[in-house]
Protein: UDP-N-acetylmuramoylalanine--D-glutamate ligase
Amino acid sequence: MKRLVVLGGGESGVGTAILGQKKGYEVFVSDFGAIKQHYKDVLTQYTIPWEDNQHTEALILNADVVMKSPGIPDKAPIVKKLVEKGIPVISEIEFAYPYTDAITIGITGSNGKTTTTMLTYHLLKEGGLNVGLGGNIGKSFAWQVAEENYDCYVLELSSFQLDGIVHYKPHIAIITNISPDHLDRYEYKYENYIASKFRITMNQTEDDYLIYDNDDEAISQWLQNNKINAKPIPFSVTKVLKNGAYLNDKTMEININQEEFMMETAQISLEGKHNLKNAMAATSVAQLMRIRKQTIRESLSNFQGVEHRLEKVLKIQNVQYINDSKATNVNATYFALESMTTPTVWIVGGVDKGNDYTELMALVHEKVKAIICLGVENKKIIDAFGNVVDMMVEVDNMRDAVNTAKHIAEKGDTVLLSPACASFDLFENYEDRGRQFKDAVRNL
Structure:
């Protein structure tokens, strides 16, 4: 019997453990931190042995294969020891992939991947397909492969998940865009991070498709220097494309395999240029999956958006409060600021992942009247924007941030939480940060 060791007792870890057990592996789950009670109960119910707050080497280094949760860096001591011993360390996606015949649609990118994943799932589901949603969101892919029977999956894939693949290939891959993020995990080398994203297409054949942003510099450069096997389907908001998706004045046009689709951009529920690109990518998938055009149109006009991504919370005394907690890097915040149409009180800060704030300068100049720093270490933000805005305040909790914003904001302004940073100094994760923001706004 082969031994599967799962590092990390979260959603992907527990899902992998269940699938592994079902496929006849001897399974052990080990988490260096605490495993949540809910997951402990599930593991106990399946009689899968586990440990937390430690890694017992004797129980780990005898594995035939190890599934590492995406949150664990390659430089973790236990991972280094496994690699030294030549034990394969893979991601949940790689482990689960051989056990399903379903078509998978893999979506990656620095920003927009959750919105594009949710929108693609929405289009396919509304189109009547038997479709699952997983990867970085929702229920773990492995868990669904173990217990469900979907014909296709829409998977949001982070670069960390792609780092752990060997044979996995999506039938349709999407790269929404690439901008510097998580460089702390890539030796601070942007090219390593870019290469990591392009692993999504490395096993694809000419029967598969790669949908990508044709306006993106990093993507275009990589494609010039590297060969792909998949059929390319580009999208652009700046140029007309013979094959792919583009903007023709106020109409989104898509030409794929001699099939044409057109829709007025005003009828698409998501706002902003970046969301038009997300819509182009998702619609390209729907076209390839033969969803009826009328269904695509209806679905694009009734899609509700994603929580914590430019989510309108409340309007109080004619001040609009917007939760963009999911903006964990500078590029995401760029899109948020770009879409602001009123003077903005900007709540920013958290754990900096090697951010360069210079690209925000012009937008901050033009749109931001005050900055509220919400983080343990705000020096970089203060240095960058101290001379650009009239007012800068430091706070150390969400309630103070929202109350301060209320005092500064005037009628017609917007209060925007768009941190451009990770959340781990003051919050559990970006969802916790977003929920605390919404609670504080509702309590004003």
Observations:
- The mean pLDDT is 94.
- The CA atoms of residues 2 and 216 lie 44 Å apart.
